[in-house]
Design brief:
Beta-Lactamase; alpha+beta; 453 residues; 59% helix; Rhopdopsin 7-helix transmembrane proteins; five-stranded antiparallel β-sheet; 12 helices; elongated; three-stranded antiparallel β-sheet
Length: 453
């Protein structure tokens, strides 16, 4: 049932991609040459909205990255944050107030500052797919560090600012050729390469985020290659449609991120609930400490085994604080009279787990402690109550001592018979005495052999 449903979903999404691409192309063909004429009053708010959306998308993508690291979200998050700065810069320098301070006139400044933002985002989208491909081939070694991404993004964004602030720009319009703005094919090519990469990746079939990402890339390709390349002047029909398409493409990525984050966090909650249920079902005490040695997770049995300090047990409690409280309240038998030394020894054992530890509490409870490092540097601790076993051992030992005392008192002995494949039988022998016999030298009395099963 699941496979046919997935196939139907994939076919529906592919149909949506074709309809989106063809539909936008038809809209361009039908309305191309329309006499619509916008202006700075519309352009500046559009770019301000785009900058805000890009900032939100970038921030959400990075939150998603740090909740469950994936280089795709790192590159997209950094890319959209850089794009937010560039879009905001584009909105400011082309506004009525700031454009008088720039070294280039509006007819050059507007298209070139526009294309810089688009080129930057297109490259980052393509790099996000390349980062995924690199990690698929090289595994963990192929991961790109956050520092490298942030340095690259920051440097490229800063260079863009400086370029527009100090360099006079050439004309961006070429009315004598078929495509009035051929430079728009720069970002269009990178959007197209990213689109092909994500389609080949195939996750769009069942991943909501990549489905919406593909739709955003389609809008980017069509907007740059079809609409903006045909814009003949500032604020014409093609110019304003592309600005609207850019906003729509940002909304697509935002939609995918929201769905992905909802799914991710819900899955995390369900996994945590299952994990908590699993540790609560354990007969052993369980506790998890983070890399800073603070208590993160524990079950009810852990609280029971720390009955004398249950009032301080809560997430965030340092392990050393737990031990100090136990010692201060005279809970651990071994610590009495050597409190400071015991605390140091126990903390050292905990932070360098190796052997099993057996502990006795002053209330008579015995338990075994096992500790192990987790991959993220934390420490998992299990404690097993062995009080009944210790009590049974004590009772057996006392019984053996009483029996031995009786046998020794009667000059008896303890022995065993062992036979391969049948096991071992223990017995004790004591002399048989005739109460009426005279106390005189005589042969050793006969003995009675008693077997113990």
């Amino acid at each position: 049932m699941a496979e046919p449903l997935k196939l139907t979903t994939a076919r529906g999404r592919m149909a949506a991609y074709w309809l989106t691409g063809l539909g936008l192309t038809v809209v361009f063909a039908v309305l191309h040459g329309h006499q619509w004429r916008g202006g700075g009053g519309l352009h500046t708010p559009e770019e301000a909205l785009a900058a805000l959306l890009a900032a939100i998308v970038g921030a959400m993508a990075l939150v998603r990255f740090y909740s469950k690291k994936d280089n795709v979200f790192l590159l997209i998050g950094a890319g959209f944050l850089g794009t937010a700065f560039l879009d905001g810069y584009h909105a400011l320098v082309t506004s009525e107030f700031f454009r008088t301070f720039m070294p280039s006139d509006l007819s050059s400044l507007t298209p070139w500052s526009w294309i810089t933002s688009r080129q930057f985002l297109a490259i980052m989208m393509f790099l996000s797919w390349l980062a995924w491909l690199r990690e698929q081939r090289l595994g963990r070694k192929g991961r790109i560090t956050e520092r490298a991404v942030y340095i690259f993004t920051g440097a490229l964004t800063l260079l863009s600012f400086l370029f527009f602030a100090f360099v006079p720009l050439p004309s961006a319009y070429y009315p004598d050729i078929t495509f009035n703005r051929p430079e728009e094919f720069g970002p269009a090519i990178f959007f197209l390469m990213a689109l092909i990469g994500y389609l080949k990746k195939g996750h769009w079939r069942d991943d909501a985020f990549e489905h919406w990402l593909v739709l955003s890339l389609i809008a980017g390709v069509i907007g740059q290659a079809v609409f903006m390349s045909q814009s003949g002047q500032l604020f014409d029909y093609e110019f304003d449609v592309v600005h609207l398409l850019k906003i729509v493409s940002y909304v697509c990525v935002l939609t995918g991120l929201m769905i992905n984050m909802f799914t991710t966090f819900r899955s995390a909650e369900e996994n945590e609930a299952r994990f908590r249920g699993a540790i609560e079902s354990l007969q052993e005490s369980f506790a998890l400490y983070d890399s800073d040695d603070r208590l993160v997770l524990y079950n009810d049995e852990f609280v029971r085994l720390h009955a004398g300090i249950e009032d301080i047990i809560k997430p965030g409690l340092p392990f050393e604080g737990l031990i100090r409280a136990s010692v201060k309240r005279d809970i651990v038998t071994e610590a009495i009279g050597r409190e400071g030394q015991y605390i140091q020894e126990r903390v050292r054992q905990h932070r360098n787990p190796s052997e099993m530890i057996v502990r006795q509490l002053t209330d008579g409870t015995w338990y075994i402690i096992n500790e192990a490092r987790t991959p993220d540097g934390g420490i998992a601790v299990t404690q097993t109550d062995i009080t009944e076993l210790k009590d049974a051992e004590k009772a057996l030992r006392e019984g053996e001592e009483r029996l031995k005392a009786i046998i020794d008192k009667h000059d008896g002995s303890i022995g065993f018979d062992a036979e391969a494949g049948k096991g071992t039988t223990f017995y004790f022998e004591v002399p048989l005495f005739d109460e009426g016999a005279a106390e005189e030298a005589s042969p050793p009395p006969p003995t009675a052999k008693h077997y113990v099963s």
